[in-house]
């Protein structure tokens, strides 16, 4: 792996196999590159096979190993089959990055039952199904590490009521699974990204672009986060450095929930150079410069 520059030791994940859901874009794509650059074989799961195939080709072009398993994480039989297919292909599953997720922005009063359930199944049920399949089919007998990606929506977030409810559920699932599966040497943690300049931000409608650009003013560190900064937190939790950490949720948010609107903000440092993360995607919503 020549061009991806990781902060971690080369070969840290040699011989290991990690599933990354939502591996075809954004944070998932960046995490897949990070793990592959450290020696892991990466199983890419997501709905769109073309996106997965593009990332597989990127990783293999860098000398890594990856394979694609298209599915909708909300469909139990498809999840069971995909995890079985990963085991058939790679023979083991050491880690799971439960990253697939997302939502449409809408006030609570504009969300009908179908929309609510689409988002809850995406951000809660689907993650549970993938984690349970990995546990039953492999990790219960061999141990492993699971990282669930949630979102920094503490104390509620307007327009994200369905997603926030599902993420809160995922945090609680993380805590219960950490307890129930500890006896099988399975660690379960969560990472809660704040406002991250991921390619996923380009899914939001045009009228939200100014809001997204202005979010940095409400982050004490003075900027949006980068996909690579979330990937690094995930990698830490998967690694032996986190061997005694389970059941926790690690915030990656520039201290956003600590922002006090009536208190003068410390001046943030300039954003890091995008060039430092050659494979991170800069969303067009941020514009140039
Ligand atoms: C700090 C936090 C910041 C977070 C940032 C990120 O997460 S960045 C990451 C960003 N990345 C992502 O978000 C990626 C993943 N997100 C997705 O794939 C979709 O947002 C999904 C979760 C809805 C699932 O998709 P799907 O194909 O399963 O769903 P579908 O399209 O078929 O809709 C199902 C139903 O939902 C309803 N409904 C939908 N839109 C609206 C609306 N605007 N208004 C009202 N309602 C709406 C409607 O009922 C619809 O049914 P209908 O009326 O059509 O019969
Ligand atoms: N960017 C941000 O500021 C924040 C992001 N997050 C969360 O981080 C995660 C990654 O988001 P990000 O990279 O920014 O955005 P993306 O939209 O790029 O990533 C979401 C990924 O999830 C996959 N996905 C969505 N639904 C399903 C499904 N039902 N089955 C399988 N795969 C699915 C998508 O693949 P496909 O298109 O192929 O279905 C896509 O690759 C998400 O859970 C997001 O909500 C949390 C907080 C903040």
UniProtKB/TrEMBL annotation:
Pathway stated in the Swiss-Prot or TrEMBL entry: Lipid metabolism
Compartments it resides in: Peroxisome
Domain of life the protein comes from: Bacteria
Enzyme class (EC, first level): oxidoreductase
A GO molecular function held by the record: trans-2-enoyl-CoA reductase (NADPH) activity
GO biological process, one term: fatty acid biosynthetic process
Gene3D superfamilies the UniProt entry points to: NAD(P)-binding Rossmann-like Domain
Flavoprotein in keyword set: no
The enzyme's E.C. designation: 1.3.1.38
Major subcellular location class: other
Catalysed reactions listed for this entry: (2E)-octenoyl-CoA + NADPH + H(+) = octanoyl-CoA + NADP(+); (2E)-decenoyl-CoA + NADPH + H(+) = decanoyl-CoA + NADP(+); a (2E)-enoyl-CoA + NADPH + H(+) = a 2,3-saturated acyl-CoA + NADP(+); (2E)-dodecenoyl-CoA + NADPH + H(+) = dodecanoyl-CoA + NADP(+)
Record keywords: Fatty acid biosynthesis, Fatty acid metabolism, Lipid biosynthesis, Lipid metabolism, NADP, Oxidoreductase, Peroxisome, Phosphoprotein
Function: Participates in chain elongation of fatty acids. Catalyzes the reduction of trans-2-enoyl-CoAs of varying chain lengths from 6:1 to 16:1, having maximum activity with 10:1 CoA. Has no 2,4-dienoyl-CoA reductase activity.
Subunit relationships: Interacts with PEX5, probably required to target it into peroxisomes.
PANTHER family per UniProt: PEROXISOMAL TRANS-2-ENOYL-COA REDUCTASE (PTHR24317:SF7)
Family: Belongs to the short-chain dehydrogenases/reductases (SDR) family.
Descriptive protein name: Peroxisomal trans-2-enoyl-CoA reductase
Species name: Aerophototrophica crusticola
